[in-house]
Structures
1.
Amino acid sequence: MASNQIQDLLSRRYRVMGQHAPLFYEKPLQLVRGEGVWLWDQEGRRYLDVYNNVPHVGHCNPRVVEAMSRQASTLNVHTRYLHNNIVDYLERLTGTFNEGLEMAMLTCTGSEANELALRMARFCTGAQGIIVTNFAYHGNTEAVAEIGTGFMPESRTTKRVKSFPIPDSYRPLDGLLGDDLAQAYADQVQQAIDEFHAEGMQVAGILVCPDFANEGLLNVPKGFLERAVAKVRQAGGVFIADEVQAGFGRSGKHFWAHQWYGVTPDIVTMGKPMGNGHPLAGVVARPSMIEAFSKEAMYFNTFGGSPVSCAVGMAVLDALEKDNLMENAVTTGAYVTEGLRKLQQRHAIIGEVRDLGMFFGVELVQDRLLKTPAKAEARRIINLMREKGVLISTTGIHNAILKLRPPMPFQIEHADMLLHTLDEVLTQVADQEVA
Ligand SMILES: Cc1ncc(COP(=O)(O)O)c(C=O)c1O
């Protein structure tokens, strides 16, 4: 009966959305309710959410829901009227940045934020060339699709985007180590700059996620990003940090992932966790850039930064602070990492465990020496985890890196459930290989 109902919903979905609209899991999930780190399906079955970073302060966080409904039942207009919520929120938001990043523009999605950042970078530098990694995803508008070297067709034909190999210390360029590796990847960025120049184009900037999250939450060779940015700046370009996934305290120690590095961006883009599911995103940049750009190119976004959105954004910041969620990312994050490293000792398929606060990447390999990506196994693992009530997914060039990125109120007891279930599933997958 229940599976007939799911089948019917799936067929109707295919008819109105087509066969290719992405859907998680071999047996798609129909979710009907969420609370904190938990989700429930239509049959009342409970799942531990270890994947979704948008419900940053927890699914249906009461503080956020209350702020949203209070403002929605009072007034909702747009940023062309004065409103305390907008200014209060932006003052608090910009207060989380290093000196120099003091002005903001609000949008509804991360894609819009990146599109705006590209326009601003190109306008302010007078150049067109953008440098990204060779497995990048930064959203879905046309200009942003051009920088989507992971799987966007527009990135294959554009002349104004060049890429460099993902700065990966697990599969290092030419087998190099340490400082040599950092330099080698920075040289690849220089090569992209030189290629632009050879084609008669100047460089507007480098745009990367400081966590290199879609690339697989890489362990970036120390010193690489600082050197790469210096080369881009020397060529006249700016540094755009895409914090759409990485930001808002997920990395634990710092509010922004770029603050782990010794270089401050010129423009930062953000989204996903910002509104806990309400469409709130934006750009924070050097005031001189925002002033120069917006003087010439009037920017208005009908829904971006409404009083309701800003009330929501403020409630997210309150929840992060009052519930000590950054501290939790440090302590519970370290506990998860330790547990994953213990699993690595017992399961040969785990090639490397990577972590940054409440964000984990588990690189799966068929052979630890050859580092052959365990793609089919990764797929089996996420589906078995789902069957056992724990939701995770994969990322990376081969989709063989487990991506674990739970809502921030994730506690030790949830970590135990994750680790125990993963242990069971890894054993099951290894047994199937032997059989
Ligand atoms: C790093 C990064 N940037 C930008 C985006 C685009 O955000 P949105 O889907 O809100 O447009 C995504 C979405 O997955 C992302 O992962």
2.
Amino acid sequence: VSKKISIGILGATSYTGIELVRLLARHPGVSISFISSRSNPNERYSKIFPEIKGIFDATLIAPEDTYTETVDCVFSCLPHAVSAELLLPFIEKGTRVIDLSADFRIKDPHIYEQWYKHKHPAVDLLKKSVYGLPEHYRKQIAGAQILANPGCYVTSVILPLIPLFKKAGAVIEWVIADSKSGVSGAGRTLKMTNSFCEAHDNFSAYAVGHSHRHTPEMEQELSLAAKKPVTLTFSPHLLPINRGILSTLYIKTALSTAECQAIIAAEYANEPFVRVREAGDLPDIHDVAYTNYCDMAFTGGSDGCPVIAVSTLDNLVKGASGQAVQNMNIMFGFGETTGLLR
Ligand SMILES: NC(=O)c1ccc[n+]([C@@H]2O[C@H](COP(=O)([O-])OP(=O)(O)OC[C@H]3O[C@@H](n4cnc5c(N)ncnc54)[C@H](OP(=O)(O)O)[C@@H]3O)[C@@H](O)[C@H]2O)c1
């Protein structure tokens, strides 16, 4: 495509928002038409993020002032509930939207309400939304009007598991996903647990077992892959680093480690952003920080030990804004890696 597409960003003052601006400002096919903020309307973006000065700058506008804008695509970096509300006027006028929140990810409105404690404002649209995991929904993404960008933990957990459940769901007895995330995973909004003295030089578990909101999203996608209901144990942890997620997946299965490794290596052989390593060559967060890659490898599986997968990604890139740009590239016919290789 030769013409640039115009885009807008709701909630541009967020961590995912600045990451999106960084990526889109140097994307050759995109022009950023508006950026919004509820608490800082009329403020220069470079005042809030001085690092972006000289690369991109604009004045933030209030969310309600965005509705008169006509753009090709709107990204939402807003919290759930607010996100669907503010995207609705754009969806109604036919604009293509990419939602980084959870609002269009969960297909069953009852499950959404149960986990997000909020009645979905547009239940009918859930059927229309496409789950934005390019490695498994590329064709549907190309034609999507409402794109639900996956959760950060979710991407790290389901990328290694979907191919296994697709091929051999019947011989997977259980999965425990033990995940760790850097503090930016919780956003820029102030929270006591994320303050320096609480998070730095510390390590903690939270929402363990079956209580984190990413659990139903993982179960939805794994059940679709297995063609039967799948449940899993998911235990997230807060790592005292800025960015990155590392998930260790314990998989009780009749498959050997070598078989799992072979299934995954074959599945992702031609994927630009999934790098499968040799068995036992475990990736770490530094290998993927600031990139759109998800790296993974298998190990374990002997002496009574379950098969183990280790997967890692940057929560703000492959776990959020990078994956959103990958989805936009597919939706608008750009090369899938455009603006994402560095
Ligand atoms: N952080 C991650 O690693 C990550 C990864 C994947 C997905 N996500 C999802 O992406 C979305 C953004 O996450 P984030 O961590 O980047 O968020 P964040 O840093 O906490 O920022 C939230 C943004 O939403 C705006 N906002 C908050 N309440 C609002 C309201 N009632 N009305 C209008 N605007 C409001 C804030 O804008 P102002 O204060 O300027 O008004 C801010 O720009 C969330 O849905 C999150 O679940 C996050």
3.
Amino acid sequence: VGTCPTCGHTLSAEYDLETARRELRPDAFSRRAPDLWRYFELLPVRDPRHALTLGEGGSPILDLGERAEAPGVRLLVKDDGRLPTGTFKARGMAVAVSRARELGVRSFFVPTAGNAGAALAAYAARARASARVYVPEDTPAAILESCATFGADVVTVPGTIADAGRVAREREKGSGRFDVSTLREPYRVEGKKTMGFEIFEQTRAADVGLPDAVVYPAGGGTGLVGMYKAFRELERLGWVERMPRLIAVQPEGCAPIVRALDAGAPRAEPWADARTIAPGLRVPSPFASERILEAVRESGGCGVTVPDRALVPAMRTLARDFGLAVGPEGAAPFAALPELARRGRIRPAERVLLYNTGSGIGYSPSELERALGG
Ligand SMILES: Cc1ncc(COP(=O)(O)O)c(C=O)c1O
């Protein structure tokens, strides 16, 4: 099992950071290969021979300068659209599949909005293991095809990822396949931590310090939980004094985390009738929402919603003005800028990093617009 057998909560990988503090220096990493295994000492795989790689990690941080959408704010984009399989999901699956394989696992399943399935399929192929993905039946065809091309079994389920999860867990009971669902095993988050490590290392190398805030498109929440864990570990190593504020962006049609943040609630309640053109953000009841809320609150961040109709114009602006191809999820942080600036959640003279979680290649903005109109 991947969760605590007593209370059912998520498990968390812990490290001997006291020893690491004495023995590790931040510049140790800069001499290593650019993939995420450069942070090996802070990742859960024990034997480097079990670290599977497709060259994930090391995505660039691009400077967009200042924009009228958030006057006076210096905007940066970290572009994970270039990772294997086109999304940040490669980070979590590289580490989860490697560690599971080290522990003897040879077959996997995952309920997914799509991108995590493609990433699982690719790393399972790399591991010569088998993968089955359970996806909502309206998942974009390009993502389904990508899962199948990497050799995964693809099972489509009516409804949302919540329904895919229910069906998957029912059908897989006793199958022997390992469940790599978001936050139901501890190691995908460890891979996502490398987003925070890279932001630290790259801004340190440029001698500019951490950004004031990271604006992130939140679905199941592993990205926020992973970055928060990364910055906490960097604090304990004595390398970081104050972490960036973590800001969760969700679409108006599916915003359980933002609603819980605004209400001061201890956990997110399921969102009825979840709708959005951003498949990765259609997560009506994120598992372990307490940990997502903790990441946002403890970092001094907040939540904000964006209407779907703002996503395609943001995709177009990032493409036309900067040559950046982002998917509808990755467009959400840019679309949220005017509201964040209006509320004073990001301020002039601050440096704000927008996280692009996935490539726009494979998405047609005009088709998304038609989907909105219908
Ligand atoms: C492209 C993309 N962005 C963002 C998310 C949300 O991920 P999380 O909140 O789990 O980090 C997903 C999840 O499917 C995704 O595919």
